[in-house]
Design brief:
The complex is a heterodimer of chains A (600) and B (153).
Chain A (H helix, E strand, L loop, with lengths): L2 E6 L2 E6 L4 H7 L23 E6 L2 E6 L10 E3 L3 H17 L4 H9 L19 H9 L5 E3 L6 E3 L18 H5 L5 H9 L6 E2 L8 E2 L2 E2 L11 E2 L6 H4 L4 H5 L21 E3 L3 E3 L16 E3 H8 L19 E8 L14 H16 L2 E6 L9 H10 L3 E4 L2 E5 L11 E7 L4 E7 L1 E6 L1 E3 L3 H8 L26 E3 L9 H21 L9 E3 L19 E4 L4 E4 L9 H5 L5 E3 L4 H13 L7
Chain B lengths: L10 E6 L3 H10 L8 E6 L7 H9 L4 E6 L10 H18 L7 E5 L5 H18 L4 H16 L1
Parallel strand pairs in B: 1-2, 1-3, 3-4
Helix pairs in contact in B: 1-4
The chains are: A alpha/beta (600), B alpha/beta (153).
């Protein structure tokens, strides 16, 4: 592509021939204000804030840079007095039209305009047309400008939706999110009778929304954005492609798909982790009913410095809590949900109590069944929290309710609990309730177990080969377990087990050979009649028929020693090491000789 | 005749080493209690069970035989438990022909984690055998002996 050279603010700038002056200005690193410009959309030139002075062959003109093409030898002034004067005038008019819009206020302030000389209006929309252009680009064309002159506004054609929901509008919210003034939010609702549906951010536990193109979480590997095909407008309308145009290195690829990769491996480490208990299953704690009832993971995001509130504890109704109740054992140690202890909740609840108290100074109440702190330094941490003045109430919470019985409980969440140490039923009013949810096996753990031929315990966690002697191995050779998929455990335990699993897998690789079980089957050729009954019974195809001898043969390497062939052999020609017929018969004779000893 | 209340049945159990045997092991680790009437023979797989083991057990004085295998679809050797089921159905018919009650042999699918099921099955089976009374193998076969005598006489 051919290049042209132009002069912008006394600076030589090289630009591609099909660029606009604004593109060239931006590529030169010069900042000029824009309102209706968007790199992914066609220029409209309606706000005219990007106006610059263009001098061609000695003649000076004021042009709109976002739609003016570059030319060889063009001289551009972005900050000449003439340009500044025009921009000031434009901003003054805009400020008069929309005095309460923040973008306009900020820009006007930058250019020294405090109060416009014109009659003030109360208009939010500045008619930049971004919403109309983005909707067109997405391929829906739901909204457009209606009317002329002072009557110009953004609407659906013929006000179609005044009586019915507009079917073509997908409620993608593209127009609302691109609107620089926030005017579209109302216009959208009024004209389409719809509400944009936010996509809850999975990583932020739904506390904020994300875009259809997003980085799953900070420090994601690889740390690059991904497109959610079910939400992206391009995969609905086959248009849009705004991200493709905005992306400078042209890295967007719409053809990428999820793919299934088949690998042949020697050993497998299962580290599928856990899921947290869904507190909707215990409605008495009010999760999903009262907005200020949170799960511990949601609070974890709230307290995180890179979280949705930058680490501030802000309630869903945007207040700050002055009292917080942390309820332990939600979905753990409960006959109605899971009977086992989730092991990690006590410690993370203590941590949350510490941070909440530190950040907000709120009164923090812990409602616990038993405090379990078996770990290095854990008991010391518990003592520290006790000294900090966090309240501990021993008892299982009966319910969380907003039903107030006196003035101290008005507008609060009341936790009803039997204090088993005091022997009384108490009502504790708090602003925020945190549910310390327990750990559960993944929903598809049983399915995966069947696939890999390993078993799940009654809770659904994968079973280890032996609870004491082989805690990392499974019943299937070469498959190892690491982390919470085997049972609830904290980070140090998980890392220890993961290291052990990796070492076990490496040991198999390093050895270079496989050790077989000795209990394989063998053939007594003198007895074999060659009936071939055993051949289809072998799941490993270890038995073959020797045509010349008219007898079967067993490949010892392939045999896993299940013994199905041995029990089926009609002539007793097959035997199995370690499970010989005389051995088992002897065993049966021996144990039937012993009388059962039963105390009466 | 032994009083049914005093009678303690002798049970020979054939357990698959991948599921029911581990369940029995885990039940022990968990200090779970069940009647001590069973004596376990460990097999690699329920499909390894030769019908002659069951007959030998009954002939040697067992009052009942319990077979434990993996749930359908979870066999370590892919289909051994189906082979056991096939054998079990046939064996029941054969034993029935000899006048041995159906309730004396029992096949159960008990996975490694189902210790409670194991306890329940064993307790239940002991009760069932107490109802049936002692096996009395020679008595059951005396009919064949007398028939044989008549034929040879």
């Amino acid at each position: 592509m051919s290049e042209v050279t132009l002069k912008i603010d006394d600076k030589e700038v090289k630009a591609e021939k099909d660029m606009t002056v604004l593109d060239a200005i931006k590529s030169a690193g010069i900042d000029i204000p824009t309102l209706c410009y968007h790199p992914g959309l066609s220029p409209a030139g309606v706000c005219r804030l990007c106006s610059v002075e263009a001098i061609k062959q000695g003649r000076s003109r004021i042009v709109v840079s976002c739609s003016y093409p570059v030319e060889e030898g063009l001289v551009v002034n972005t900050k000449s007095p003439k340009v500044i004067e025009i921009r000031k005038m434009l901003l003054e008019l805009m400020l008069a039209r929309s005095p309460n819009v923040k973008v306009i206020q900020d820009l006007a302030k930058e250019y020294g305009i405090e109060k416009p000389r014109f009659r003030l209006e109360e208009e939010k929309c500045i008619l930049c047309g971004l919403c109309q252009r983005v909707c067109e680009k997405i391929g829906q064309n739901v909204i457009n400008f209606v009317g002329r002159g002072v009557g110009r506004e953004v609407k659906t054609p013929y006000q179609m939706s005044a009586d019915a929901n507009l079917d073509i509008c997908m409620a993608c919210g593209g127009c609302v999110s691109i609107c620089p003034t926030g005017a579209m939010e109302d216009t959208f609702k009024e004209s389409t009778m719809k509400k944009p549906i936010p996509i809850p951010s999975e990583f932020e536990m739904g506390l904020t929304s994300r875009k259809p193109i997003y980085v799953p979480f900070p420090q994601a590997l690889p740390n690059i954005p991904t497109i959610d095909r079910s939400k992206c407008a391009h995969f609905v309308t086959d248009q849009c492609r705004i991200c493709e145009e905005v992306c400078e290195p042209k890295a967007i690829n719409f053809d990428q798909k999820e793919e299934t990769v088949e690998l042949e491996v020697g050993s497998i480490i299962i580290a599928t982790g856990f899921k947290t208990f869904d507190p909707h299953m215990s409605p008495r704690y009010g999760y999903g009913i009262y907005p200020n009832v949170y799960t511990s993971l949601e609070v974890e995001r709230l307290l995180n410095a890179s979280g949705p509130t930058s680490g501030e504890v802000v309630l869903r109704n945007s207040g700050k809590p002055s009292s917080v109740g942390i309820i332990h054992c939600i979905g753990s140690r409960d006959e109605n949900t899971n009977v086992y202890c989730s092991k990690v909740c006590c410690m993370y609840s203590l941590k949350l109590a510490h941070i909440i108290k530190e950040r907000t100074g709120a009164e923090v109440y812990n409602f616990y069944t038993d405090i379990r702190t078996p770990g290095k330094g854990f008991e010391e941490f518990y003592n520290k929290i006790l000294e900090e003045g966090v309240h501990f109430i021993r008892g299982k919470v009966g319910e969380v309710t907003d039903h107030a019985i006196d003035s101290t409980e008005e507008g609060k969440l009341v936790i009803r609990v039997e204090d088993t140490l005091m022997g009384v039923v108490r009502r504790i009013p708090v602003d925020m309730v945190v549910l310390a949810v327990g750990l559960e096996p993944q929903a598809d753990a049983v399915e995966l177990g069947k696939l890999l031929n390993i078993q799940c315990s009654s809770e659904g966690f994968f079973m280890e080969r032996h609870p004491k002697m082989a805690p990392v191995e499974t019943f299937t050779d070469g498959i190892f377990l690491a982390g919470a998929c085997q049972g609830p455990k904290d980070i140090p335990d998980t890392i220890a087990q993961a290291n052990a699993a990796a070492a076990q897998a490496l040991a198999l690789i390093d050895k270079g050979h496989v050790e077989l079980e000795p209990n394989t089957a063998y053939v007594d050729e003198d007895l074999c009649s060659g009936c071939k009954v055993c051949i289809p019974l072998c799941p490993y195809s270890a038995i073959s028929f020797d045509e010349s001898k008219q007898k079967v043969e067993i490949q010892g390497v392939l045999c896993k020693g299940c013994g199905a062939c041995v029990s089926a052999c009609p002539s007793g020609a097959l035997g199995q090491n370690l499970f010989e017929l005389p051995q088992i018969m002897g065993e049966i004779k021996g144990i039937t000789r012993v009388l059962p000893e039963v105390k009466t | 005749m032994t009083n049914a209340k005093d009678f303690e049945p002798k049970i020979v159990a054939f357990f698959c080493s991948w599921c029911t045997y581990i369940a029995a092991d885990t039940a022990g680790v968990g200090r779970k209690k069940y009647p001590p009437n069973i004596r376990v023979v460990k097999l690699m797989c329920s499909g390894q069970l030769d019908p002659q083991y069951v007959i030998a057990a009954l002939a040697n004085g067992a009052d009942g035989v319990l077979i434990g295998g993996c749930h359908p679809g979870t066999c370590h050797y892919s289909k051994g438990n189906y082979k056991a089921l096939r054998m079990y159905k046939l064996l029941k018919r054969v034993l029935g022909d000899f006048g041995i009650e159906e309730g004396r042999i029992r096949l159960e699918w008990i996975s490694a984690s189902e210790t409670n099921k194991l306890v329940k099955v064993v307790t239940d089976f002991v009760g069932q055998l107490k109802e049936l009374g002692p096996m009395n193998w020679p008595g059951k076969l005396s009919f064949f002996d007398s028939e044989l005598k008549e034929a040879t006489a």
